[in-house]
């Protein structure tokens, strides 16, 4: 039987990829399927949490039962929803793959081929939503005991610096837990399975062996349940 250890907790999860529009028919995007974030939302609801899922572009993630879903497209829309809703959350999990950049100009009509070949695409930096949530918590705009969980998708293996990158990212982003995915070989973006590590601010590192995203979700929520304040 599943533990009912998240009963009453309000958990906000982001999932899927952002799409940054270029014109009415084109966008910059990524290969996130939303499966990992949806698996987290589903598992948290099964453990008694009240779950809101803010979902970007997904492919076939399955409908989670008993979860409120809000759909967004771009990073800025995701930021708007997360920063507002984080004020009502006990736990925030950023499993979405957020585009770091967006086109400066969004054409009002479909961009034509033109006689001079393709025009260059100029990019602006998107807000770092996770870092913004940590800042808002520090400033007291969201409750100081809100648990914030980040993800990191890194290429390479443990010896190839994935963990070092993860440790540096945990320090830089200032969240409580960082789930590090090793990308590639049937893991992370768009796949059924995943593998990696969970890093905590106090230096605990737990390996997450290769397995389904559902299994990975339950291991992540085990760690969340340990640190979330219980009323
Ligand atoms: O959706 P799936 O196909 O199931 O795949 C799952 C996943 C691989 C997308 C997911 O497990 C994952 O790792 N998500 C984060 C991937 C990522 O974009 O990592 P990052 O290193 O760019 O970002 C680090 C963290 O900062 C993430 O929590 C991300 O949500 C957040 N971020 C990143 C950029 C940005 N502008 N704002 C953010 O909040």
TrEMBL record:
GO terms for molecular function: phosphopantothenate--cysteine ligase activity; phosphopantothenoylcysteine decarboxylase activity. CTP binds at residues 100, 110, 127-130, 151, 169, 173. It comes from the Bacteria. Pathway: Cofactor biosynthesis; coenzyme A biosynthesis; CoA from (R)-pantothenate: step 2/5; Cofactor biosynthesis; coenzyme A biosynthesis; CoA from (R)-pantothenate: step 3/5. Residues 11-231 are annotated as: Phosphopantothenate--cysteine ligase. Keywords: Decarboxylase, Flavoprotein, FMN, Ligase, Lyase, Magnesium, Metal-binding, Multifunctional enzyme. Its cofactor is Mg(2+); FMN. Its EC number is 4.1.1.36, 6.3.2.5. Residues 6-225 form the DNA/pantothenate metabolism flavoprotein C-terminal domain. It catalyses: (R)-4'-phosphopantothenate + L-cysteine + CTP = N-[(R)-4-phosphopantothenoyl]-L-cysteine + CMP + diphosphate + H(+); N-[(R)-4-phosphopantothenoyl]-L-cysteine + H(+) = (R)-4'-phosphopantetheine + CO2. Binds 1 FMN per subunit. In the C-terminal section; belongs to the PPC synthetase family. Catalyzes two steps in the biosynthesis of coenzyme A. In the first step cysteine is conjugated to 4'-phosphopantothenate to form 4-phosphopantothenoylcysteine, in the latter compound is decarboxylated to form 4'-phosphopantotheine. Catalyzes two sequential steps in the biosynthesis of coenzyme A. In the first step cysteine is conjugated to 4'-phosphopantothenate to form 4-phosphopantothenoylcysteine. In the second step the latter compound is decarboxylated to form 4'-phosphopantotheine. This is Coenzyme A biosynthesis bifunctional protein CoaBC. The chain holds residues 179 to 409 of 409 of the full protein.
